[in-house]
Design brief:
The complex is a heterodimer of chains A (50) and B (221).
Chain A lengths: L3 E5 L5 E6 L3 H23 L5
Antiparallel strand pairs in A: 1-2
Chain B lengths: L16 E3 L3 H22 L10 H25 L9 H16 L12 H25 L16 H30 L4 H9 L1 E3 H7 L10
Helix pairs in contact in B: 1-2, 2-4, 4-5
The chains are: A alpha+beta (50), B mainly alpha (221).
């Protein structure tokens, strides 16, 4: 998986175009992991609300 | 609703309600939320294959968000409420208390002021990320024709434009995760009082007494 999008200019040099959009799914996945992780923690490990 | 049961909007309180968010702050929050969702949708839906003319909607929404953020900053400065989001020594002690309680599987012993350290941290994270998208987005506006200017893609070198695009994209990607987390916490049962406060403005006196230190968040009696 690439981190950046790159292209080549007229001289053949690499030019940054921005972040790789493949990372969108990484950030969505990270959000899901954090949400599920916190929900499981609250469900199993955390003390019940007063 | 009687006068005694209706909290006023100046951050004070009545017998049974405490104002947490004044109307202008709530309006700012929901305009910002709508803008961020539109901006994320117009940015990422075309990437996942939903084709539409997104550029005009994207930059116009960005301008609205920038205006909302400027309003928020001006309001905070005028009202002198910048300190309410400051992370001080008491907040660090709160954080240690929360971390210790989590490890011991007990409840924290300390109560925060108006905002918990977690709420301050997420505010600052959103501030940094949104300001990054707005500043870089402002530069990117110079690459498109708009009613007020003609495009000028030669303002920066290609390498500099690449960095602008990377910062804009990275901040947008971070916003995806942060918005997911923010919505999740807003919908959690124990946090619904904060969501209600962001809609209607108030928390109950009982919620105030249970979850806030009255010495650190002083409201009118």
């Amino acid at each position: 998986m690439e981190l950046f999008r790159v292209s080549r200019d007229i001289y053949g040099r690499e030019t940054l175009q921005g972040m790789s959009w493949d990372l969108l799914w990484v950030f969505i996945g990270l959000g899901c992991v954090l949400i599920v992780g916190h929900a499981v923690y609250r469900l199993i490990l955390a003390p019940k609300q007063r | 609703m009687t006068t005694s049961s209706r909290a006023n909007s100046r951050g004070s309180a009545t017998a049974d309600r405490v104002v947490r968010h004044a109307l202008p702050d709530r309006v700012f929050h929901w305009i910002s939320a709508a803008c961020v969702l539109i901006l994320l949708g117009t940015a990422f839906l075309p990437i996942v294959g939903v084709e539409f003319a997104w550029v005009a909607v994207h930059w116009m929404t960005g301008v609205v968000l920038a205006a909302a953020v400027l309003f928020h900053i001006a309001r905070v400065l005028v009202r002198g409420t910048l300190r309410s989001m400051w992370i001080g020594r008491a907040d660090l002690t709160d954080a240690l208390d929360v971390a210790g309680a989590a490890l011991r599987r007990t409840f924290p012993t300390r109560r925060p002021g108006k905002y918990s350290v977690a709420q301050k941290l997420i505010h600052h994270a959103f501030a940094i990320v949104v300001l990054t998208t707005l500043v870089t987005g402002g530069f990117l506006l110079l690459r498109i024709d708009a009613p007020w200017w003609q495009r000028n893609p030669y303002l920066f070198t290609d390498a500099t434009w690449g960095i602008v695009y990377i910062l804009h994209g990275l901040a947008a990607l971070m916003l995806v995760t942060m918005v997911m987390m923010h919505v999740y916490f807003a919908l959690r049962p124990e946090k619904l009082k904060f969501t209600r406060a962001m809609i209607f403005g108030w928390i109950t006196r009982r919620e105030f007494n249970e979850h806030h230190d009255p010495q650190r968040w002083q409201v009118d009696r």
